[in-house]
Specification:
By secondary structure, the chain is of the alpha/beta class. The chain has 10 helices and 14 strands.
């Protein structure tokens, strides 16, 4: 890889872009909104709405990527459920626009997908299990998977619940929300009987980068090694802060914003152990990561090197030739 275009500028996109940059690749984020989180600081950016095929083609022509990571949102499952047409326009139609813009190019693509493509009946799902999306977000992502896989050199990486410090995001993830409240002794209400295999953001970035530079196609699952309920997880976070785990109250999932989520949002993999690119990248256990994150609240997980001092923000739109040079193919 040399030039990587990342569609998206959120939590996952920022961490993937930062890891790729550390490895020496030229990275551009493409999204509707200017990135503003710590993990995107210093990364180059171009404005693009994936729902607009002209904008997608324009940014692809400008960057001329060797590889593409599709991590565009919105990932707000509640919003998608309220606006399924909007979710389809961004995820499914957006995927078709990216595939069309890449036609004729030799650009490897990895789509970051979701456990919501499954109904949640089984305790955990693997790559060979049949999909049956639980909600509008899952349906839109499933259609995006089909579009990318039909487009050629593409791989779908389905991830389970992603966590890590995310204080600056539009919707801080479950770990961050619980840690910030429990850390000051405030109570939290958590949906009961909602099961996940949480995966650390650093592991998502590591797997995405490794698979982007591999020949494998199809689907790969990334879930953490521990299956647990959100109540169990939140109470473990409370113990990490030395506060009463009874501050965590279990409430019916149907009475919360999680009502449209599958009861079991858990993934495991039949393929990962057989992919040499993933050796040494086994996902960290959530309890181990909790302790490290609580102990170092301003740092990434210690298994991931810290980034160098970030460069100043780039302009809203920039000349792609300044990044890669006009004479590069």
């Amino acid at each position: 890889m040399t030039r990587v275009l990342v569609f998206g500028s959120g939590y996952i996109a920022g961490h993937v872009g930062t890891r790729l940059t550390r490895l020496g690749h030229g990275v551009v984020l493409g999204s509707r909104r200017r990135p503003h989180t710590p993990e995107t600081r210093g990364l180059r950016w171009l404005p693009v709405d994936v729902a607009d095929p002209h904008q997608v083609r324009t940014v692809v022509d400008a960057v001329r990527p060797d590889a593409v990571v599709a991590a565009h949102g919105p990932s707000d499952i509640t919003w998608c459920e309220a606006d399924p047409a909007g979710a389809t326009a961004v995820h499914a139609a957006g995927a078709r626009h990216v595939v069309a813009a890449l036609a004729g190019r030799t650009a490897r693509t990895v789509l970051i997908s979701t456990d919501n493509v499954f109904p949640g009946h089984a305790d955990s799902c693997t790559e060979s299990d049949a999909t049956a999306p639980a909600n509008a977000y899952g349906r839109a992502k499933s259609a995006a998977e089909d579009a990318y896989l039909a487009g050629g050199d593409a791989l779908v990486l389905r991830v389970s619940l992603v966590y890590g410090w995310d204080r600056a995001g539009l919707r801080p993830n479950f770990f961050t929300t619980c840690a910030e409240r429990l850390g000051v002794g405030a109570p939290v209400a958590v949906p009961d009987e909602h099961w996940n295999t949480p995966v650390l953001i650093d592991d998502v970035a590591a797997w995405t980068t490794a698979l982007l530079d591999s020949p494998h196609t199809g689907v790969v699952h990334l879930g953490g090694p521990r299956r647990l309920s959100r109540v169990q997880w939140a109470r473990h976070i409370a113990l990490g802060y030395g506060v009463d785990p009874e501050l965590v109250t279990a409430v019916p999932q149907g009475d919360t914003a999680y009502a449209c989520r599958p009861r079991n949002a858990c993934l495991h993999s039949e393929r990962a152990a057989h992919l040499p690119e993933l050796r040494g990248l086994e996902p960290v256990d959530v309890y181990t990561a909790d302790a490290a994150l609580i102990a170092a609240p301003t740092a990434h997980h210690p298994s991931i090197p810290r980034a160098a001092s970030p460069a100043p923000d780039t302009p809203a739109a920039f000349d792609a030739s300044a990044v890669f040079g006009r004479d590069q193919s």
